[in-house]
Each structure stands twice: as structure tokens, then as C-alpha cells.
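Example noted here:
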Amino acid sequence: MKESKHHVHTWLSRRLEAHYLVVYFDATFVHTRREECVGKEGHYTLLGIKEDGSREVLSIVNHPTEGVLL
């Protein structure tokens, strides 16, 4: 568990590229139980395509409601 936390912390604190050729933003809505109610929550993924053609997951975020994520 400690090693997994270290890997997650390393990934979250990494430096991102200054430029990506393409950035994809996608959401998947999943029924999720919170206490006594079930509702759809968005799981958002941000994927960047680098200049060399390789892909990088930039972010994965759970957001409980639809709407702007600013």
C-alpha cells in the first residue's frame, strides 16, 4: 500500500509538457451510491498527444455533478 501511495503521489506531482498537439477530454457517467442515494457521477479523463505521437494521461477526476469543471 505504501508503495502504491508513493507511485500515485509521483504521478500527481509530475511536470506536464508545455505543449500537446491534441488534448482529449471525455466523461463516463457511472451510477454511484453515496450514503442512502444512488446517482450518476462523472468520471473525467484528460488525455494529451505529445509531439512524438505518444499519449499521456493528464488527469482523471471524479466529479459528482454535471457542469463546468473550472
Remarks:
- The first strand starts at residue 22 and ends at 34.
- DSSP finds one helix and three strands in the chain.
- Helices lie at 2-12.
